[in-house]
Amino acid sequence: MALRFVSARFVFPLFLICACGGKDVSVGGRDDAGGSADTGQPGAGGADTGRSAITLTCWRGMPEFSPLDKSCNAPADCFVARHIINCCGSLEAIGLNVGAMNAFSSAETACGGGPCQCDPGWTKAEDGRTENEGVIDVECVTHVCLTYVR
């Protein structure tokens, strides 16, 4: 009887792990939940590599930025834009076309910084990784500027 009890203790957690399902993740692939695979490579993370423009919003919710160009033919066409995403001043690094630099800077300045006295945490790149894991850089992937941690 004790043997069955011990076996059940190990079988039940195994059943729970299996029942929760897993993710089928491959380089540049999609997981079974519809999200992007996080491979740590440019263009393989959370960003939609099919977008050639992005519309950002001030951390307060309004106003919305004009659409910003993400298109590129080479890495030199891109820059890392650091966008404030909340009251703490947390930043998201977004790859944009250098032609959108002035429009981004003006809109970001108009939004203002976060007034809260809280830790902003690490800046997050479009591949889902943060700057504490390395240096944030930008690459031109399938004609779209994307940030990643190298």
Q: What does this protein look like?
A:
With 150 residues, the chain is an alpha+beta fold. The protein folds into 2 domains: 1-37, no CATH class; 40-149, no CATH class. 20% of the residues lie in helices and 20% in strands. It contains 2 helices and 6 strands, in the order αββββαββ. The chain has helices spanning 2-20, 101-111; strands spanning 53-54, 68-69, 78-84, 91-97, 136-141, 144-149. The protein has a two-stranded antiparallel sheet. The N and C termini lie far apart (55 Å). The model is unreliable at 1-49 (pLDDT under 50).
In short:
With 150 residues, the protein is an alpha+beta fold. It has 2 helices and 6 strands, in the order H-E-E-E-E-H-E-E.
Could you state the order of secondary-structure elements as H and E? HEEEEHEE
Average pLDDT figure: 73
Strand order of the biggest β-sheet: 1-2
Number of helices: 2
Poorly predicted ranges (pLDDT <50, ≥5 residues)? 1-49
Q: Provide the helix percentage.
A: 10-25%
Q: What is the alpha-carbon Rg in Å?
A: 20 Å
Count the E strands. Answer: 6
Query: Largest sheet at a glance?
Result: 2 strands, antiparallel
N-end to C-end Cα span: 55 Å
Strand content: 15-25%
Q: Classify the secondary structure makeup into a structural class.
A: alpha+beta
Describe the structure using short key phrases:
2 domains; alpha+beta; disordered N terminus; two-stranded antiparallel sheet; two-stranded antiparallel ribbon; 150 residues
Task: Note the topology.
Layout: H1 2-20, E1 53-54, E2 68-69, E3 78-84, E4 91-97, H2 101-111, E5 136-141, E6 144-149
